[in-house]
Write a structure and sequence with these properties.
globular, 18 helices, alpha/beta, glycoprotein, single chain, about 575 residues, FAD/NAD(P)-binding domain, binds flavin-adenine dinucleotide, about 20% strand
């Protein structure tokens, strides 16, 4: 990207008026801002700056984005980098060994698309049908959403010569992607050898490659995933390098970086603008048409609450005048949790190759000259399945009954393969299980009426026992994969994590509670729903109930956490609501 805003596109910190004011220049915010700027005047307010400047190679080079992003450390020992990360922490998780978790969220132009793992995949036909049913709007079925998914994407087929990995040839339906949008979606030009073995382990226990890939409305079997990656340079593509760059020079979009939106201004229950703070200068950006909040899963509900929209009791406790009493603001938080089973392996991995002084120079040359080699490596392979009968039979009746409410093509567990550098240069392979249906419900609230005070985040992990039950089943299933034929070729020694001593269901659950992590897919804190649903915050056009001129457009409005990974759906929802606005809906 240009790494600078042209003077006329950099907003001036002074009172001004636009058609639309977008709060948050993240994944959804930059997408909707760029789309609206094609036909209207638009300002976007973003707390951060350019991640390429503030975080350097770690956020740009694919391998480093997997391993060098120290800010994704989920423990409270995370490194403090306030220029790029919001440094949010959860309240102690009482069903997860009382752990306090650091929950990384991008504070930069591009938001979390600038620090994510870049996997691009969608959810299932039945998941979007459920979304349509919950919100009472058929425009949310997969066939009706597909044009919006396609609109954002520019697909480049894999470069098989550079990948040079017959065991990792991506299979996909090219018709499902799209090719006219600004967001680059492609495959990495190098495949980590350990990952091909781990994929073979999952295939050996019945999870065959899905020939359509995971963007066609199906999530079952395995897939070599595409990523949001620029295939020419093998660098991250984010909402900033795609949508923002595309809008610069072509539209009148005004960007206010390093600026905190402090409050939405209302007159007679109509959103009129936003107060902003830039380096101590306080001013107002007024919206002739609408204010659009795209602050992400934790900050969108916070911005609504400090502006007077939320549960009445919470607002009153902080002396905030109530504009609309919406009890669902900050509720319904859904955070899929994950647990890994790891072993030492004898196969090389990307990290061992770049950490080794003998192989590092050639890795660097390949990356610089060919956009290939270990540095271009990204997350590779994921599988989904409905649990096989012998594992399903170990679930509690309550969990089985809860699962039975979901459609027959609903994936029940996700398995991600990964590889890490172990002690003394050793290589560790990991297969993790993630719940695809989050039964626990958490919340986001405020500790103060001041936006600068961090929100109070409680994902309430494992408050519904079904989530722990599912992960115990996942560990058992992964152990089957680690016992498969391909695994025997690469495994070294007894199981490294959790370790063979963790054996009974109770022991596995205890290990999970002490070690499970987020995969940073939290959603649904300003949930979309029908007007009759008291906990719904926005309608199916993302308009906030009880007020005019205000929408929320980001992952917080997902009615629930759909199986799959969310960024494709975040770009999609921003495209869809931009189209609604353009058509006067
Ligand atoms: C570490 C990590 C790995 C992930 N991996 C993947 C993956 O591989 N695949 C996938 O599909 N998804 C992945 N995700 C999830 C995905 O990236 C997010 O769900 C998605 O980017 C959320 O988009 P959003 O627009 O809702 O929020 P964000 O992109 O986070 O944008 C919110 C923006 O609002 C700004 N903001 C907030 N409050 C204010 C304020 N008061 N004033 C001004 N600005 C404000 C923030 O700085 C930020 O830029 C990952 C996420 C993380 C964090």
């Amino acid at each position: 990207g240009p790494l600078r805003l042209r003077a006329e596109q950099l907003g001036t910190p002074r009172n001004d008026t636009f058609d639309y004011v977008v709060v948050g220049g993240g994944t959804a915010g930059l997408t909707i801002a760029a789309r609206l700027a094609k036909f209207a005047s638009v300002a976007v307010i973003e707390a951060g700056g350019y991640y390429q400047v503030d975080y350097g190679n770690a956020s740009v080079i694919p391998l480093l984005a997997l391993t060098g992003l120290d800010i994704i450390d989920p423990t409270t020992n995370f490194p403090h980098r306030p220029n790029i990360d919001w440094e949010l922490v959860t309240v102690p998780q009482s069903n997860a060994a009382n752990r306090v978790m650091h929950y990384a969220q991008g504070k930069t132009l591009g938001g979390s698309s600038a620090i994510n793992t870049m996997s691009y995949l969608r959810s299932t036909k039945s998941a979007y049908q459920r979304w349509a049913d919950l919100v009472g709007d058929n425009s949310y079925t997969f066939p009706n959403l597909l044009p919006y998914f396609k609109e954002s994407v520019h697909l480049t087929p894999p470069n098989l010569a550079k990948r040079n990995a017959a065991n990792a040839t991506p299979e996909y339906d090219p018709n499902s992607f799209g090719n006219g949008g600004p967001l680059e979606v492609s495959w990495n030009n190098w495949v980590d050898p350990t990952l091909t073995w781990l994929a073979a382990c999952l295939q050996a226990v019945g999870l065959a490659i899905n020939p359509k890939g995971f963007s066609s409305g199906e999530l079952n079997g395995g897939s070599w995933l595409p990523s949001t990656i620029d295939p020419t340079h093998a660098t991250r593509d984010s909402a900033q390098t795609s949508f923002l760059d595309d809008a610069l020079g072509k539209t009148q979009l005004r960007v206010f970086p390093h600026s905190l939106a402090t409050r939405i201004l209302f007159k007679d229950k109509k959103a009129k603008g936003v107060t902003v703070s830039t380096n101590g200068t306080i001013y107002s950006l007024m919206a002739k048409k609408e204010v659009i909040v795209s602050g992400g899963v934790f900050h969108s509900p916070q911005i609504l609450m400090v502006s007077g929209i939320g549960p009445k009791a919470t607002l009153q406790a902080h002396n905030i005048s109530v504009v609309a009493d919406l009890p669902g603001v900050g509720k319904n938080l859904q955070d899929p949790v994950s647990i890994g089973v790891g072993n030492f392996v004898n196969t090389p991995n990307a990290q061992s190759m770049v950490a080794n002084s003998a192989t590092q120079p050639e890795a660097l040359r390949q990356y610089r000259e060919d956009a290939a080699g270990p540095y271009s490596s990204v997350a590779g392979y994921i599988s989904y399945e409905r649990l096989p009968a012998e594992i399903r039979s170990t679930l509690s009746n309550a969990t089985r009954e809860a699962l039975a409410k979901y459609p027959s093509d609903w994936p029940e567990l996700q398995y991600i393969v990964g590889t890490f550098l172990g002690p003394n240069g050793s290589a560790m392979g990991s297969i993790s299980a993630t719940i695809t249906t989050t039964f626990s419900r958490g919340s986001v609230s405020i500790a103060s009426a001041d936006i600068a005070t961090a929100p109070v985040i409680d994902p309430s992990w494992f408050s519904n026992p079904a989530d722990g039950d599912m992960l115990v089943a996942g560990v058992k299933r992964i152990r089957q994969a680690w016992a498969s034929g391909p695994a025997q070729s690469i495994r070294l020694g007894p199981e490294a994590r959790p370790g063979v001593e963790v054996d009974t269901d109770a022991e596995i659950l205890d290990y999970i509670q002490k070690n499970a992590n987020m995969i940073w897919h939290a959603s649904s804190t300003c949930a979309m729903g029908k007007k009759s649903d008291k906990m719904a915050v926005v309608d199916s056009k993302a308009r906030v109930f009880g007020v005019q001129g205000l929408r929320v457009v980001d992952i917080s409005i997902f009615p629930y956490s759909p199986p799959g990974h969310p960024q494709a759906s975040v770009y999609m929802i921003a495209e869809k609501i931009a189209d609604d606005i353009k058509r006067g809906r």
